[in-house]
């Protein structure tokens, strides 16, 4: 009889676990903020017990949105969520570019923190403006990613008829950590990146250069420049301008650049109660997130709803939580 009761207990407990939704969180590459941010969110959700969450390394925004669209399986209780740049989320929602003909049913759970666009090089490289990248060894991040897409728009506005295969001396398409290593070793002249402040790989690069008597340089992207205005016209209301303070990476000057407020997204099929529970668990544990990831200091209740004026809708479960907290007005 005792054996029967024990067996029943484990069967029942296993059934409860099996019924708990599985949430796979697409992040980015190791060395970028997305990876550490998404990993911490998974830990918070698991500890709260609202879902079975697992963070996964990925190619970033575009891949995360494709996983959301293609791999989510509500019948199995499996949902792909992820971190994403707002311009990528907009393209996915509208069915543009790589989502042509197959838009993603993307919904925002909350707005995370701002990304700052980086064009990273060294002072000794002689690179001061985008046009100086002609003939240089340059990485545009992972193939087909949103950073590469943004980089090509900027470069096309700076150099008429731009083609990375012919205008770059060597075209690399690697993650931020590898780009930073290549630049530190003298095997790369510059790379494009979009991330929170500070991005760990670039912070480490700045330190490595400093120890060799060299200095990091960030190519300025002034708001009045043609490349910046072209990208803003491509994504109206999504792309903003800002400044990377010189103290972040010990650069000689503050650097004007582009900014994007990242969003945490899930599929529309995620049950409302689950979305509500996920958002509630996260925002009740913000100190944990803030302590783990420096850029997460901008993840607040007030900032969480700052994307609500855009075309990509928020998930009803998230809206309910923010209404209860008085920030959704």
UniProtKB/TrEMBL annotation:
Protein name from the UniProt record: TRAP transporter substrate-binding protein
InterPro entries: TRAP_TAXI (IPR011852)
First and last residue of the signal peptide: none
SUPFAM superfamilies, sorted: Periplasmic binding protein-like II
Organism, as annotated: Thermus scotoductus
PANTHER family from the UniProt entry: SLL1037 PROTEIN
